[in-house]
């Protein structure tokens, strides 16, 4: 086995302790284990000597950053999404790119299911109502709606979409989905493939789990909202830019759709005075779908394993699909 201590690994953000300990044992680790961001000057100096990058906090990895890091063999991102990385530029430089699929599916699907239930059953609105001291008023919150027999539309049927299905089935929902390509296992999944337009028209709850790419950016625009049911809710646990925030605001204000529950936003972080936050028919959580102790530890360890494999010139346990040989 190669002695990896000769390799330098830089981390762009705070790592889970399990990952820090494992990596620190194996390599020469340059990490910022304090709160806040590593100062840019310090980070640039680390990059100049780094053989690998532990990418935390979704930093932008483009030509400009890569030019500062001439020795990089591998970049491992502690997230499943990697739209912040110019993968083509990495591939051109022979840099392997890893991410963390699989290990966060249950945690993210749980949050998506929670946001579906919130949209239907007014959990956040109910809590706000009580805190405002208006519980005793005759005019309450109004009635919510059942999930049973409603249609859930999933945009992007990958690991997370699939993990959401049994949860929604527990609430007796019917499931339809839209993907770039129809899957071959619809009957096993228990979901029906439909076009984007049909999904917009039929779904009572739409959950976005797709990746952000040129074909999904701004997919939920004013035209899409006009096609949705007025009683429908939109839940986004994927990437904020898949939804046009201005169009969403208008759809929520004019009643084109009933509710939105977002774990991701555009911009992100969403400023506290953003106009979306002035609305009553929205729940916003701070991009926390994978933020459980167990899941973040698993993501961090997979990130470390991607780095160690890359330093040894071995196949990464989880390399991004764009770099798969037959991609
Ligand atoms: C991911 O892994 O891409 C998630 O968005 C992090 O919560």
Describe the structure concisely for a colleague.
The chain is an alpha/beta fold and 327 residues long. The chain is built from twelve helices and twelve strands. Helix content is 35%, strand content 14%.
Q: Report Rg.
A: 22 Å
As laid out across the biggest beta sheet, the strand order is 8-7-6-9-10-11-12
Task: Kindly state the number of beta strands.
Answer: 12
N-end to C-end Cα span = 30 Å
Which runs of at least 5 residues are low in confidence (pLDDT < 50)? none
Order of helices and strands: EHEHEHEHEHHEHEHEHEHEHEEH
Q: Which kinds of small molecule does this entry bind, naming each only once?
A: (2R)-2,3-dihydroxypropanoic acid
> Helix- and strand-based class?
alpha/beta
Helix content: 25-40%
User: How does the overall form come out from the CA principal axes?
Assistant: globular
Main beta sheet: strand number and arrangement?
Answer: 7 strands, parallel
Q: How many DSSP H or I helices? A: 12
Mean pLDDT: 96
Tell me the fraction of residues in β-strands, as a range: 5-15%
Characterization of this structure:
The protein has 327 residues and is of the alpha/beta class. Helix content is 35%, strand content 14%. It is built from twelve helices and twelve strands. It has helices at residues 17-26, 40-49, 63-67, 87-92, 105-121, 123-131, 159-170, 186-189, 196-202, 222-227, 245-254, 293-311, and strands at 8-11, 28-30, 52-55, 74-77, 96-98, 151-155, 174-178, 192-193, 205-208, 233-236, 259-262, 282-284. It has a seven-stranded parallel β-sheet with strand order 8-7-6-9-10-11-12, sandwiched between helices. Strands 2-1-3-4-5 form a five-stranded parallel β-sheet, with helices on both faces. Helix 3 (63-67) links the parallel strand 3 and strand 4 (74-77). The relative contact order is 0.15. The model has no long low-confidence stretch (mean pLDDT 96).
């Amino acid at each position: 086995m190669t002695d990896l201590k000769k390799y330098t690994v830089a981390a762009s953000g705070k790592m889970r302790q399990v990952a820090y300990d494992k990596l620190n044992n194996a390599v020469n680790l340059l990490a910022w284990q304090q709160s806040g961001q590593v100062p840019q000057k310090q980070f640039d100096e680390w990059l100049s000597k780094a053989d690998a990058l532990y990418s935390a906090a979704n930093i932008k990895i483009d030509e400009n950053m890569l030019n500062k890091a001439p020795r990089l063999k591998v970049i491992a991102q502690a997230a499943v999404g990697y739209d912040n990385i110019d993968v083509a530029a990495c591939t051109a430089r022979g840099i392997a790119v890893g991410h963390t699929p699989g290990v966060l599916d249950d945690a993210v699907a749980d949050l998506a299911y929670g946001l579906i239930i919130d949209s239907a059953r007014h959990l956040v609105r109910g809590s706000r109502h009580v805190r405002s001291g208006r519980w005793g008023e005759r005019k309450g919150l109004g009635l919510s709606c059942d999930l049973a027999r409603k249609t859930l539309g999933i945009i992007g049927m990958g690991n997370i979409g699939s993990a959401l299905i049994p949860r929604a089935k527990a609430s007796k929902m019917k499931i339809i989905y839209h993907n770039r390509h129809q899957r071959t296992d619809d009957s096993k999944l228990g979901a029906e493939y439909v076009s984007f337009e049909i999904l917009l028209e039929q779904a009572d709850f739409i959950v976005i789990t797709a990746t952000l790419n040129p074909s999904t950016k701004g997919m939920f625009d004013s035209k899409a909202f006009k096609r949705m049911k007025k009683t429908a809710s939109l839940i986004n646990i994927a990437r904020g830019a898949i939804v046009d925030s201005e169009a969403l605001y208008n759809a929520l204000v004019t009643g084109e759709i009933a509710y939105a529950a977002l774990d991701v936003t555009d911009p992100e972080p969403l400023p506290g005075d953003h106009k979306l936050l002035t609305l009553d028919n929205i729940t916003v959580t701070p991009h926390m779908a994978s933020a459980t102790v167990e899941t973040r530890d698993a993501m961090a360890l997979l990130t470390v394993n991607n780095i160690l494999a890359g330093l040894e010139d071995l196949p990464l346990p989880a390399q991004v699909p764009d770099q798969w040989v037959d991609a």
